[in-house]
Write a sequence for this structure.
């Protein structure tokens, strides 16, 4: 059961999406922007509002890579795994990130500062290897640049 | 003095924001009257951040700039590249779709109009719906997302369909590695896409449009959302488009990180708020698309090319190209290349010229081993197929596809068995799960390639068989086309598969 505050926030989010056609993805994005993840106890609230089952909402949440069921670290570092970045050393870069952070894909460092996520193409294919730190794009990431990014993120 | 500093993601990823801030700060210190305009990128990514200074002769380029170069720039002592329009890379192109990208301030509707914008829409407003469709059909424009289906024919189906509401859905889920044309135009000339969608709306009598834009492109989302608001304020969107008495409005919808949503039926499900699972066709989305209503689903570049077709006439566009591939194609050159970026040219340029001359070979200087054309579902082309001219049928004839026209170049250090494995792994991660050959086949594919890697040569036959099943038995291109990179790697680079076998023995 969601607490009173969560319920109130949810009512606001749901009300602001009332006029949309096919509103579930925008609702989930808004929920994640608010809470940093999709809390388990809001699933029923969304289901009731949309007149669909809890299972259907769960199905949608779990289908998409973007939606989390637990909070991420303070900073999210995404490293591109796709072919164009591989052609210029992307794989070595992610291996270095694993080593520096001591986590694999989707892992969060022990201090809770950095979550490492794979991404399949940021559209920076002519200046790879590419990465994104909290929505900010970085191109031509070499070992030195990566170390600096990770240090800034508090890894 | 007017100074242009790109706001394109690729330019920002290479430090354009720092350069822009440094120019503003340094100009303030010196008391100079400098206006910094944030334009899109010209597409010469190896020169980014490419700063341009407006002069009486034209725009002079400086790149790749670093914030520390700013004092020298303002002293007039920084070596320049010369006039940007006169650089070989720019002169060699035929820029139709991208005519304004990198030239104008993307969020200035006045700039947009001064450079030919809205001329196509104004012409379309004076035409019957069927005539607009006929114009697009005559131009020979084909779906630039990859499938290459004639845009005019798709529009005609929607025009002829009955429904309480019709929709224009723009597929901006540009997930293919090596492609960034959609992102570049949305960031550099967003009004072109908006204008193209309005024209599509007039042509098929749809009054509502959606852009399904991937969440991996936060800068494009931001710019396009701002452009939609500006277009609405200026009456380009709304209940009375440019005083025509006809309505069209649009919304931006953000994806959630699923590659398969670039497939049109999966995209429609996602837009409806469902899991992005592929739908069986028929029914065609043209007849039963978004919410079961007639829907045009077009790629960003297809829609963004419509304004120039209406502006300059269908024949002008159709006169470019090769065979049934008419017009121009924005080729995206990526991966291990000296000169990476976007190069718009008429169809027909041989792959060799694109790779060796335009791209200048590899960045590392090592020989080119393979070029993957058309994204993660495209074939790996070896050097002996480099004479293939860039066209839909021509690549199909070589066991490949042009897809969204991205080229990813690899040097001789590339391990093609590893690339084949990655293609299967990617398919397994991104499969929507609807059909077995894709959902299970991709997982088995990874395992089978691992067996080959461990020296089990007998597994090669099994891999070929699996690929055949995936090709024939999958509903959409994800499972159906993953065999392209896998089999092209296997057939064109057999040594990479055999070497492992010998090493194991």
């Amino acid at each position: 059961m969601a607490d009173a505050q969560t319920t109130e926030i949810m009512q606001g989010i749901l009300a602001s999406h009332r006029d949309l056609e096919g509103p579930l993805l925008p609702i989930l994005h808004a929920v994640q922007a608010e809470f940093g993840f999709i809390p388990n106890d809001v699933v029923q609230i969304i289901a009731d509002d949309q007149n669909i089952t809890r299972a259907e909402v769960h199905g949608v949440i779990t289908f998409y890579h973007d939606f989390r069921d637990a909070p991420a670290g303070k900073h999210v570092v995404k490293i591109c795994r796709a072919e164009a970045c591989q052609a210029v050393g992307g794989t070595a870069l992610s291996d270095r990130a694993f080593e520096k952070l001591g986590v694999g894909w989707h892992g969060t460092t022990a201090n809770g500062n950095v979550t490492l996520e794979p991404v399949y193409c940021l559209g920076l294919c002519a200046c790879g290897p590419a990465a994104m730190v909290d929505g900010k794009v970085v191109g031509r990431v070499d070992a030195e640049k990566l170390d600096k990014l990770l240090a800034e993120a508090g890894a | 003095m007017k100074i242009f500093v790109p706001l394109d993601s690729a330019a920002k990823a290479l430090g354009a924001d720092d350069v822009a801030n440094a120019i503003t700060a340094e100009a303030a210190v010196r008391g100079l009257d400098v206006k910094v305009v944030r334009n899109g990128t010209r597409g010469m990514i190896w020169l980014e951040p490419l700063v341009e200074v407006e002069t009486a002769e034209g725009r002079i380029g400086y790149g790749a700039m670093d914030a520390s170069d700013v004092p020298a720039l303002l002293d007039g002592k920084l070596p320049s590249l010369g006039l940007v329009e006169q650089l070989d890379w720019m002169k060699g192109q035929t820029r139709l779709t991208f005519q304004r990208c990198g030239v104008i301030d993307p969020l200035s509707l006045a700039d947009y109009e001064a450079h030919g914008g809205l001329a196509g829409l104004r012409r379309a407003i004076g035409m019957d719906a069927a005539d607009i469709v006929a114009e697009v059909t005559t131009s020979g424009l084909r779906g630039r997302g990859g499938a290459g289906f004639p845009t005019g024919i798709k529009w005609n189906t929607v025009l002829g369909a009955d429904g309480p509401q019709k929709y224009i859905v723009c597929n901006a889920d540009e997930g293919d590695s090596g492609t960034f044309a959609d992102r570049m135009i949305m960031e550099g000339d967003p009004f072109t896409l908006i204008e193209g969608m309005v024209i599509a709306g007039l042509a098929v009598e749809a009054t509502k449009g959606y852009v399904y834009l991937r969440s991996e492109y936060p800068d494009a989302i931001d710019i396009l959302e701002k452009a939609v608001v500006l277009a609405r304020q200026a009456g380009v969107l709304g209940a009375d488009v440019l005083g025509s008495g006809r309505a069209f409005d649009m919304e931006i919808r953000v994806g959630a990180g699923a590659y398969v949503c670039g497939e049109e039926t999966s995209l429609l499900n996602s837009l409806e708020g469902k899991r992005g699972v592929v739908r069986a066709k028929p029914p065609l989305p043209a007849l039963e698309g978004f919410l079961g209503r007639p829907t045009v689903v077009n790629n960003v570049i297809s829609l963004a090319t419509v304004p120039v077709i209406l502006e300059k006439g269908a024949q002008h566009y159709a006169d470019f190209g090769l065979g049934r591939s008419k017009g121009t194609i924005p080729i995206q050159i990526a991966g291990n290349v000296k000169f990476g970026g976007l190069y718009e040219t008429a169809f027909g340029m041989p792959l060799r010229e694109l790779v060796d001359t335009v791209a200048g070979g590899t960045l590392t200087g090592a020989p080119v081993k393979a070029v993957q054309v058309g994204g993660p579902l495209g074939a790996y082309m070896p050097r002996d197929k480099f004479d293939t001219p860039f066209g839909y049928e021509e690549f199909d004839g070589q066991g490949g596809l042009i897809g969204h026209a991205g080229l990813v170049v690899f040097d001789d250090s590339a391990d093609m068995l590893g690339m084949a494995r990655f293609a299967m792994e990617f398919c397994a991660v991104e499969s929507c799960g609807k059909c077995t050959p894709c959902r299970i086949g991709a997982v088995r594919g990874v395992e089978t390639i691992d067996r080959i890697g461990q020296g089990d040569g007998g597994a090669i036959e099994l891999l070929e068989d699996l690929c055949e099943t995936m090709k024939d038995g999958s509903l959409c291109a994800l499972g159906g086309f993953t065999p392209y990179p896998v089999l092209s790697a296997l057939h064109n680079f057999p040594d990479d598969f055999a070497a492992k076998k010998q090493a194991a023995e």
Notes: The longest strand of chain A covers residues 75-80. The mean pLDDT of chain A is 97.
